[in-house]
Amino acid sequence: MSTIDDLPPLRQVIADHELRARKSLGQNFLLDLNLTAKIARQAGDLSRVDVLEVGPGPGGLTRGLLSEGARKVLAIEKDARCLPALAEIAARYPGQLEVIEGDALDIDPLAHLTPPIRVAANLPYNVGTELLVRWLTPPTWPPFWQSLTLMFQREVAERIVAQPGSKTYGRLAVLAQWRTDARIAMSLPPEAFTPAPKVSSAVVHLTALPAPRFEANAQVLSRVVAMAFNQRRKMLRAALKGLVPGIEDRLIAAGIKPTDRAEQLSIEAFCALAREVKAAQG
Ligand code: SAM
Prior knowledge:
By secondary structure, this protein is α/β, with parallel strands linked by helices. It has two domains: about 10-210, Vaccinia Virus protein VP39 (Rossmann fold, 3-Layer(aba) Sandwich); about 220-280, Helicase, Ruva Protein, domain 3. The protein has helices at about 10-15, 35-40, 60-65, 85-90, 125-135, 155-160, 170-180, 220-230, 235-240, 245-255, 265-280, and strands at about 30, 50-55, 70-75, 95-100, 115-120, 145-155, 180-190, 195, 200-210. The strands form two sheets. The protein has a seven-stranded mixed beta sheet. It has a two-stranded antiparallel ribbon with strand order 1-8. Helix 3 (about 60-65) links the parallel strand 2 (about 50-55) and strand 3. Helix 2 (about 35-40) crosses helix 3 and helix 10 packs across helix 11 (about 265-280). The longest helix is centred in the C-terminal third of the chain and has 15 residues, at about 265-280. The chain is elongated and about 65 Å long. The relative contact order is 0.11. S-adenosylmethionine (SAM) binds next to strand 1, helix 3 and strand 3.
């Protein structure tokens, strides 16, 4: 393993600070700095960008982001044991790394960042999907971030980029692809992590589109999609029963067969339905 900076190798950092991984915090660390630099490069040119990183842990990806030239990294870490290791990185990159101890679900990072902002993280599996959904459903669009470069379990990554007709197509795919370009940028085997998880992982790169692909009210679309996929095996006329009066007519008006199932519907069709539902709600 080569180094990308003059800080100690990550194995030594972990030994020095006794950072034994905790399952409850979703801790699977990346120790190969070549790999973390490669992940950082998936986020593009960072020289004029502030980066939000959730869960820096011992700082492998943080070091990758900084060595790749990030203007500033704001790192939010829940595990206080990691702070001394992160302080060593901050000392190596004066003024470029700010670390906040706390739960990323409770902290508003915007006070600490200057646009343009990108997000890059090897997310803790237990809060990864929740954070992604939050980032994808802000009150206004475009969001505070230009892009998200995120490590997920392979199965979650596939759900984000899934196409209609596939078993993995669902709420995450519609929410992500309605307003971003989403692709799998890298695949990683379990052995890339310490300790090795049971499953493979993948880095997903999502770029925010300036405007949604198709017109729809975000809240209505979210509700329609959640309801439709909540009972994904049912026909839409049954799955969406009670959403608005006369749902069958609304489906037909949106150009959708009431006997179709959610997984057959394109994002364009979901948006057409959301517009019909909104009109019905008055
Ligand atoms: N970025 C490091 C790496 O790639 O080696 C660590 C990744 S590890 C999968 C996830 C990290 O997120 C851990 O350091 C864990 O302590 C932290 N974490 C877990 N839950 C968190 C939360 N709610 N807010 C902030 N950090 C959290």
